Every structure is written in C-alpha cells, then in structure tokens.
Predict the structure.
Amino acid sequence: MSAGGAFGGNRGVRPVPPEKGVFPLDHLHECDLDYLACLKSTGAQSEKCRMFSKKYLECRMGRNLMAKQDMSELGFSDADVVVTPSEEKHKLQSPASDSKERK
C-alpha cells in the first residue's frame, strides 16, 4: 500500500502556503488584456512581452490586487521602461506640436 493512500493524501505533512500569499484575481480584467494579447500574438513567449508584464504587475499593485513591491524585487530594472501606446503616439506628435507653438 502506498504511503499517502488513495484519498487521504500524505497524512502528517502540513501544506506549505505560497511564498507571496493569496491575492485576489482580476475578475474584471482591468490589468491583463494587453499582456494576454501579447502572449497570444507571440505564441506564449513571455520574454517578448516583458514590458506588458511590468505594466500588468504595476496595474495590479495600483488596484490593490497584489501587495506593493519594488519592481527590482520582481526581476525588473530601471531600464525596463513601460511605454503605453498612447505615450508612444504622444512622443511621435510632440515635435510637430512644438513647431506649431513657435509660429
């Protein structure tokens, strides 16, 4: 007979909680849409979605869906800058708007 039994599990051994604890799920998908879309478009290659991963974690922390933590502790550096599409569009339009103001 096995040590754990069919339905009893491993008796006497206490379960170990997850390292980061339990956190609420994002039921309203406020944070995960861009990250999940990136994963889908890259064939689940998470390294190609690193900027969306950082944005996702920052969003979760901002909405109290996870504990606030320094991004360097989560594997991100200051060089990992998150630029949203609207910020990118603004950067592209900035020189033109500056020249209009000078006229």
In short: The chain is about 40% helix and 0% strand. The chain has a mean pLDDT of 74. Residues 24-66 form one domain.
